[in-house]
Every structure is written in C-alpha cells, then in structure tokens.
Design brief:
By secondary structure, the chain is an alpha/beta fold. It contains 9 helices and 4 strands. It folds into 2 domains: about 130 residues, Resolvase, N-terminal catalytic domain (Rossmann fold, 3-Layer(aba) Sandwich), CATH 3.40.50.1390; about 55 residues, no CATH class. Helix 1 links the parallel strand 1 and strand 2. It is elongated, with a radius of gyration of 21 Å.
Length: about 210
C-alpha cells in the first residue's frame, strides 16, 4: 500500500503547500512513508483538478489518499461528489483525512475490521462532503448579499476607464469579500473587476494590518 498525499488551495494566491508539515508529521508518527505528493491550486467545487486525477490514475488498488481536511478533497455538489467517489472506489483508494479520526483506523485494520471501518468511513465522508458543500454555498450567498447591499445605490457605477477617481463603493465591496476569505476568482467574477484591482485592495488591507 502506498500513501499518496494531496494538497489543494483555491487560488494561486493561497499556499496549497501549507499543510505539508502536518501531513508529514501524521505519517511519521505512524511509521508511514508518503510515496508521492500532489499539489494544486484549484477550486474544491470543481472536478477540473488535474493533480487529483493524476493521483487516482497513478494509484494502485488499495493505496491511501492522505488529506488535511475533507474539504481539501471536495466542495463538490452531490452529483460530482458521487462521480469522484466512484473513481476512488474503482481502485479501492482509502481516503485518510487528518480531521476524520475514523479514517485513521483504516491504516491498521485487518480484512474483517477493515470492511467495517470502510463502511463507517464512507458514511462519514459523505456527511463531511455535504457539510463542505453547504459551507461553500453559504459563503457564496453571504458574499452576494454583501455585494447587493453595497452596490444597491444605482447612482454608483463601476470604473469605466483609466484616470477616473477610484470607485470607493467597489473597493469597499472587494475589501469585505477579502476579509470573508472569498477566492479572488469569485471576487473578480461577482464584482466585475480585474485581478489588478483585487490585488490593490488586498495590498492596502495588508498594509492596514
């Protein structure tokens, strides 16, 4: 059995490699060797994750997929989650998450207890995947509510050309979404601004402490 570690962050401005130390410590404590690392910056709400599917393709039957939290694996909707679960099941890949203690038992279980723990872990995975998806949808809804509230004044318009005074209302919206840890790609889409604008607001927010 090989241990294959998977690290994910939503945008290239976030550190997907952040949890590497925790995963390595988990393996070291149990005398396990991580055979390969797969790192990417992609949304957990999308199946377009080349490194995750490379991991599945590389895996042998019975290998383990090690993650920090279940939401690193999935913020998928129900249909996409079932698609991913089916691909993992085809190779009997065990999902071991640091935040899911029942999954840790799969590393030492024999054939009989292993089947019991797999059934229990499967239910827990489905539940946590559903919670992760709900959290994702709630954050997006709150972000949209913040945008609607701030942009409610019809006299305010977005920047149209260089040299025009800054749109304070738009910048306030971006600042609110950054504080809420909304991915940059979502801010750009929902507010209708460039990455440069988000970067400018993020820099000012950081300088302000």
């Amino acid at each position: 059995m090989f241990i294959r570690a998977y690290l994910r962050a939503s945008t290239d401005k976030q550190n997907a490699d952040r949890a590497r130390t925790d995963l390595q410590a988990f393996a070291d404590e149990r005398g396990l060797v991580i055979a390969a690392w797969y790192v990417e910056n992609e949304s957990g709400a999308s199946l377009k994750r080349p490194e995750l599917f490379k991991l599945i393709e590389d895996a042998h039957e019975g290998d383990s997929l090690l993650i920090e939290q279940v939401d690193r694996l999935s913020r998928l909707n129900a249909a996409d989650w079932q698609t991913l679960r089916a691909k993992l099941a085809m190779k009997r890949i065990k999902v071991i998450a640091l935040d899911l203690p029942t999954s840790h038992m799969l590393l030492d279980a024999n054939d009989f207890t292993g089947r019991m723990f797999e059934a229990l872990n499967s239910m827990m995975l489905d539940m946590l995947a559903a919670i992760s998806r709900k959290d994702y949808e709630d954050r997006r809804r709150r972000a949209q509510q913040a945008i609607n509230s701030i942009m409610a004044d019809p006299t305010k318009r977005a920047e149209k050309y260089k040299g025009k005074p800054e749109d304070a209302r738009r910048h306030a919206t971006i600042r609110t979404l950054l504080i809420a840890k909304t991915p940059w790609s979502d801010i750009m889409r929902d507010v209708g601004c460039s990455r440069m604008t988000v970067a400018k607001v993020a820099r000012r927010l950081k300088e302000a402490g």
